[in-house]
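Chapter review: from sequence to fold.
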Amino acid sequence: MILIISILIFLSLLYPYRAPSAQEQTPLHPSSGKLNTNLIGSLLPLSGEYESVGRKALRGILAATDTINGQLGFQVVVKDSGGSIEETRKALEEMVREDGVSLVVGPIPSGLIDEVNGTIKSLQIPTLVFPISNRGIPHNAYLIKFSYNIEEQAQVLARYAIGVIGIKTFGVLNPRNQLGERFKETFIKSVKALGGDLTYAGSYELGLGNIWTEIEWLNSIHPQAIFIPDGATRSAEVVKMLKKRLTLGNVLFLGPSTWNSDSFLRAIGNEIDGTVFNVLFTDFFFPGSDGWVDFSDRFDYAFGERPDSPLEYQVYEAVKLILEALKDPVGSEHIMERLLASDNQRFEITKSRSEGLEITPRPLLLTIKDGNINEIR
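The token string follows.
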């Protein structure tokens, strides 16, 4: 089945899909009152700066579609959002008005959501997006937001560190970029709200040129925990540099979901002893979790290789969750209502203030022990 869908997608990129005439088809978007739920749209960057991101997300969609399909015949219409904003809006309109999709996945990255928000509203098309933060996401009754966002991650880490471990003093060392600054602000807010004490906040250049000055400050202040909201590779380098200089007391290194990766494990696994230095990070899966193992096997079968990106899994889980709701013949024909009524133990599905839906994975707390990523129970 995955081969058939892949061929359809390839052909759709070469020859634009022409929808049946009005006499031959049932209207497909929510305003019609009826949904043909076997056709979904993919609005992803397949060219340009974010091409690699778009292709990873597309493989997540295909893996989910193949997993759920059976006799249901879900098909994917693919449009490239890698061009201008005008081209992206036009592609979205074509998928809905001409191809007749009942759900759109994308756009990615999340910065494009605001650019196409008005088009989504006018088309009244349920649209699945993956924002990394709550900040700046427009209100829209047709948005389905699937995200373990940075605000939630910061709260989970602060809550466990203060409420369970008993950490009282914190330091923050973040990269000098927009995401690092946003993570810092959110984490500091969470720590203070829970009664923790922020004793130092510093930042470093992306090339780590000034990192030793920040480390000397941390070494003189000795916070019990240090939050480093950066990507896997650079975070690992920062942790190893800190480990060489920090001299007194137990230190807990805290990190976001980017630490849940093979690259972080390979770089840092042997550096953590679990006694003097330890790590705590969060995500909604880890290499040993049932969902990831099952996904990896299906992905390998479909594409002949193991998945190499958390984004592939995130998109897979989100699309699979929606398709599972759609395959149930009982209940509302509307995607949003079916999702809200669905019962899933791994995801919390709620209405947002804008009357769209928010899908939040159940968070896990993770650490490294004996060279492996493990869940803290």
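Two observations follow directly from the output. Residues 64 and 320 are 5 Å apart (CA to CA). The longest strand covers residues 197-204.
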